[in-house]
Amino acid sequence: MARLADYFVVVGYDLDKRGGSEGQGHILQRFPEKDWEDNPFPQGIELFCQPNGWQLVPERERPSFFVSVLTDINSERHYCACFTFWEGLDNPQLQKAEASEVDEDEVPGLVQPAQVFAPKSLVLVSRLDHTEVFRNCLGLIYTVHVDSLSVPLETVIGNLLTCVIPVAGGSQINESPVCSLNLSVPQALACDWLLGCFQDQPGQEEREESLRTITLGAGDRQVIQTPINDSLPVSGSSVAHLFRQLGIVNVLYLFCAALTEHKILFLSSSYQRLTDACRALLAIMFPLKYSFTYVPILPGKLLEVLSTPTPFIIGVNSFFRSETQELVGSMTLDVIIADLDGGTVTIPECVHISLLPDPLLQQTQTALSMVLDPELEIADHAFPPSSTQPSTLKIQDKEIRAVFLWLFGQLFHGYRWCLHIIRIHPEPVIRFHKAAFLGQRALTEDDFLMKVLDGMAFAGFISERGPPYRPTDLFDDLIANQVERIRQEECSPHKVMNHIKELAEQLFKNENPYPVVAMHKVQRPAESPGHNDPKNLAIFPPLDDVTVQLFIDHAAAKLKTAPPMVKAELNGMVPSGPPLGDIVDRHGHVLANSARRLEVVRNCITYIFDNKMLEAKKLMPAVLRALKGRAARVCLTQELNQHVLQNRAVLDDQQFDYIVRMMNCTLQDCSHMDEHGIAAILLPLVTAFCRKLGAGITQFAYSCVQEHMVWTNMQFWEAMFYSDVQNHIRALYLEADGGEQSIASHGQQESGPAAGGQELLGALELASEQSRLWPTLSKEQQSERVQKEESTVFSQAIHYANRMSYLLLPLDTSKNRLLNRSGIGDVESVSNSYVTNSIAGSMAESYDTESGFEDAESSDVANSVVRFINRFVDKVCNESGVTNEHLKALHTMIPDIVQMHIETLDAVHRESKRLPPIQKPKLLRPILLAGEELVMDGMRVHLISDGREEATGALGGPALLPAEGAIFLTTYRLIFKGTPNDPLVGEQVVTRSFPIASLTKEKRISVSLSMDQFIQEGLQLRSCTFQLLKIAFDEEVASDLAEVFRKHMHKLRYPQHVQGTFAFTVGQSGKTLVEHKTKDKNQSIKTLSKNLVKSAKRTIGRQYVTRKKYSPPTWENRSSLQSELDEDEISVSEELDQGSLTLSSTIRSSDRQTMSNVVERACCRDYQRLGLGTLSNSLTRSKNEPFRISTVNRMYTVCRSYPGLLIVPQSIPDSTIQRISRCYRQNRFPVVCWRNSRTKAVLLRSAGLHAKGVVGFFKSPNAPSAGPSQADSTSLEQEKYMQAIISSMPSYCEPSGRNTLGGFTSTHMSTSDSSDKLRQPKIGALMKQVMGGKEDVPGTFSRGALGQRARVISLSQPRVSGKARNPPGGKWGSIRGSGRLSAYNPEVGNRLSSKESPQPNGGPSEALFLRQQRAYLYIIGDKTQLKGGKQDSFQQWEVVPIEVCDVRQVKNSFKKLIKACVPSSATSEPSMTFHRCLEESEWMCLLHRVLQVSVLVVELLDTGSSVMVSLEDGWDVTTQVVSLVQLLSDPYYRTFDGFRLLVEKEWLSFGHRFSHRGAQTLASQSSGFTPVFLQFLDCVHQIHLQFPMEFEFSQYYLKFLAYHYVSNRFRTFLLDSDYERIELGVLYEEKGERKNPQVCKSVWDYIDRLNKKTPIFFNYMFSPEDEEVLRPYSFISNLKVWDFYTEETLSEGPSYDWELVQRGRQERLAEEVPDKPDTTTPKSQRHIVWPCYDSRSRVVPDAITKLLQDLQSLEAELGLPPEKWKDTWDKIKANQRAEAKLENRPSFNSSLLMSSNLSHQRRSQGVYLPESGVGSSINLAMDRETSTTSTPVAGRPSTSTLYSQFQSTESENRSFEGILFKKGALLKPWKPRWFVLDKTKHQLRYYETRQDKECKGVIELAEVESVIPGTPTMGAPKNIEEKAFFDLKTTKRVYNFCAQDSPNAQLWMDSIQSCLSDA
Length: 1959
Fold this sequence. Notes:
elongated
């Protein structure tokens, strides 16, 4: 029973203390005067009566009522019901004013009212929360006072204070009343219990309850409903109101915020609403109780409470909104503000509220919306039910609470299975195992639940609900009996609603146990009209305290005499509900470990203990992989447990090693929380498994598994300790009760159900039983039990101090500690991995120091471990009530335990170092090339996986990496060879290698290998062959050895001189690696070389001073024979006019045969093929030719980097050349390198001009000069040179002296206009693209002329501005460049677009001199080099300024490309995807630019203009462009011989700096690797992809060159120029007889030799067309990433060293052939191909290769001499052609087409230039011979139709086309139409005009019956002979056609007929 009210207080306005702006209140009276013993009077009530402050008001306000809540120091809540009314009193301000007439402070004009009103509050203080009862009681007192009823106020108050009611539960009928009606106090209708009974509806359980009715003796009567169970909160309808005010989502935010301990502030202008909202929030938190600051109404004076750092729930009146904003703002802004009036919740940015886990949040929101808004669900129904009103507020309130109760049931179900009971007597002590709970529920990642379980509310929940013997309530029932139901109903919202309604009903019954009765009667004050009239209201009188006290005393005496009420104890055992394990499995949250995996784990352990080590080793990897799953880990612990006898299991070394590995692997995936309890089960096992090291020395497993975070986690140790204590206490009582089975085997019993639920259930049941019996025991028995429990805990504490020292002290306490363990304060410990044996060799010794500091260090470790254990012991012993004496004993014991353990460890450590090293996998030897030698033997390393995912198994397939093996350094390569760590693929061999010369970056890294937690040093080596080796040195490799390895690597990568590279040292013994003294291979060549160089040096000395080249020492000390030969020199005659000299006259006859070598160089062979000149003796013949071969550079005196023989115009003498050359950078003057056989246009190459030469070159020759200065004469000579080139072109004619080019017509072009119109805009457009449009900002590469990513260019006729109209006959699209371009070269754009060039002064332009034709010579120059020159309108050349890609850009782009294709580590960032990195590298942009310029040059040459490429130094971009132009224009260069010749001529002879760009020597190391040649090969690869039938060589050929141009295996790509090659004697030695035929010095020889053996380089689709000019698409969208960059073959390494691959394959085949034929099992023919492991082209060859291979093997079987593959191939092709001829088909081996490669192929049908708006394909190839008026041309037998079948970009296929007149249908006229005969689609189509894209009609050839000559009909075209008419008869109608003439008609008829016969 409890008092309804503890105190009654009257609080009034304090007139004495009203200083300043605010008044104060003070207590006028309180009853009782004395404090109750059990409940002291709360302080500060006067503040809470008027939270806004005590103020006088001018008008009387209505009485108000609210309930404040005060919390006392014991966390007891006091409910203060405040009833406030206003009493009039004379205005104190007026009185003050009368006293002092003149008051300076008074503001004139303010009329003060004569009377003001002061507040007065009646306050009830109670520990019960009955708001409505308090409101009625205080209202009654006020009514008695106001209406002056006959009842004394003292009686009413006395009765109120003596009223006693039960706190909860129904009191029975026989209960006697506390105050009977016959009290002696007059008129005291004392608090009366009117006893009545009611029965529930029949059929329900009949219960008798008493109806509590109180009366205060003023004729009133009210019913008090006390809840049946007081543990459930009472909420009235406050929860429903809260949801109405704030909405579902907002309240859920507040709910989660309160549970996760955030600060919450409510704002409202109503006090009662604030109280209700706070009450509601607490009600929905049930069963958790809020334990932080809780102030529903905070007075204004206490606002600074808001700045408390702890969480709170506080309500503040909106009146103080601005003050609270300031306060909250000044803090860290971490307060969540809920505005009840506005319905908003404001969450600051810095606050993160963890919400409910996902499915629960959704379900809760759904359930709440179904309660609050049931109409929502049926809002869309066509026939909604008639009524779906939400329940009444009171019912709705309970429904909402039921939703939250259901939610907590979901969250906490199974919590009782994770309770540890660690003491039963005298009081139960219970701990919750959080990690196990989260692990079982699979919610370890859930932020919300983690925070809730760590919170204070949950701690209170456990201490309150943990005890197993106590009263139970609705929540306990829910957890115990309804979990299954909740789980089944989860998915069905309607079933959930039914459940919620049931729960709501129970909640409602609990709060309102009795039906509402009609006895309720409370007086209210009469509403008088003069309510505000002060006369009506007397002041509230002071009360007679004696009378009130008399009532109180009387009641107290009555209670004492009343018999004591013993309420029946309702304690019982709390049921635990279903265990957790089943639930998790049903949800499938646990990793499903198949039974097979568990079987593997079991088998492996059995093998280990049966000593079948080989079997165990095979299974080990599978076991380690299986141990990622929880079930397998549990299985492992169970299996190991079976092998422990008497807490000990002694193993041999290998067994021990395996068991430790498995334990480490199991622990490795455990989090530090150990949520699955795996570490807990392993803990006793690590102290059980051991091995004998020596006499009396045993090493336990714990010394090898210390490297896991879990051991340093205090919470883990606590949970373990409590778990063990629980088991022992349980055992204690079980033995006492009759001793069940021994618990020893369950020593490692884990808390969760995984280890077995029955025992755990037993512990709580047992505790419950013991708690029930406790009161019945005698004092002795009680104290004996307490003592037993205490000593059990104490003994466990000692045990755990030992256990912790085992796992925290490292094996070697003296060793330098490698890893810092953050967990144990400052404990750092040495890394102990599964490598339990010592490391043999110097490594171990170096640590074994004999210094005197060992003790100091070990004590350092000891101290930190002691501190950690002490902290643990203090915590657990205090919690489990260990006595102080015992605790002290423990503290003295711990340091001794640790010290003792350190001593035993020292002995173990000493012995363990003597163990033999572990057997590691055998190192595999790599296969070496002939002449390749090992520099360093294999060092054991681990190959770590990098960012490429294929090999790691991330994309499926086995994990080939990481692998263990060795790294070998040879004179040529760096090779890793080993086997994967994953033994599923342990049989495979992994090889990764790259040439040492291709190493671009080396970086030290430290690596942690997954299995053993060693941090090892390693290297990351990157190669420009797109390979990356990431290696970690094994612990057996000494660090100095790794250093030696690095030094050797650097020495080999950057030799002092190019002679140190592998290509030169190959085949020599290791000693000569440094010296290089070799015998002369070919004396005559050496002689030539020597002479050439000597004379060159002498000549250079005379004429021209250059840097002296490095000359190797071997040249200086030659044999005597050599010195005799020294006199034989080449004479250089300076005086002779060198123009008249030929080769034969300058070289003495004795040297002619050697000089013939020069003639055989690539350049010469090619010049002769192109007809550019011969080296004949007769000068007469050569005079007629426009060009000649000049020997001016035969001594390399004019230009070091040019070849000895050059093509120059016939008319230019050598002396001029020498002068001209000085204007160009590096003296690289313009020379001819190719001539178009059809148009005779020539391609020239040179370097850019020197800055001084530029202006002179462009000066107008007519400008007056002050004398023949040097610059002028040079510039004139340059001009002469250009003129000579132009004159050499046959299209150039000179009718008069200076040519105005007016009559420029090109013979190859048709005279008609149409083809020009079609063709010309393309070049203009191309030019515009290349030069950059207006938006270009010249300067940077990426935005420069070529950098436009497929910019749209206009092909329409240009719209010209008013100033510059297009003159008649203009045919060129505008290519006006950017502003900058026009500034220094205004003519180019104008001239190409035939626009007039306005004069600077705005006058008329010189239109007369502007030629209407394109230039004869275009100079492709660098924008930056061409500033300031003025173009002369008469000159016949034009400069096309473009922006060149700088070498630096290529270098940087390549670096990024490598990182994109071969990333060093895997990344998950979306910004780092492969395609994003590829785009950022801009490599594709660079290719696009080079291709774009090349296509432009091809176009210009093809239209008859010559082109000079004059960029940078003439050896990088120039070489790329010139080579690509020749490749595109001349089919010869697309064959093996031609491509070789092209590379030798343009790249080698013309001096591309291979050594410098490839950083091949120490000198060029700083310049870095710049792959200019690779870029060229990539461009060729792009062209090859677009035109696969035009190349004789395959893509593999290009990859082969790309690999070997950096590998330095061959001498071909070494050195920077022919001069340097001659100087070293390597240029001509290839002709000499080779000593070692194995060693190829030239890559070309090697390719030839290989090509004879195998078709690997051959392209089977090679089927060239005559004189085909290729025009590839160059836009980035058309370019593909070269697979050379991304593919690798781990089985054999790079396939570009063919002999290695072949030998490797033979060895593997030999291994695979078994010794004895195994007849029992059929051998599978299937073979799995892994993309990154196998070479796909070899394992799955294409059809032709396969057939050729089969043919070879058949020949071998039949014993026939093998036929060369090329012969076989040629035979087949010949047969094909013969068959094709017979069938009258185009000769094309279509059957040999490999369609797989044809998906993106096309012929050179057109260059794709998207117009603005639409993309169109403009035919470039067709307009050569056709025109609108000429006769239609029968399509030449061409393969283009075959391409078109596969090509969607081509608009259509035209086999034959031309104009025919067609007669329309009936009465329609004849009309000319453009007809197209399409053999492929088998139809005849016609269009309006030739250009038209829309087809007007189609005649299907399948329907044609005959083609016959016709006769003219009415309306036929005039003047056309009769034979030109023919008719086409189809099944539907007859078509009448008319051609231009009879042959034309015959052609058409034949063509159609042949189509019909073909079909």
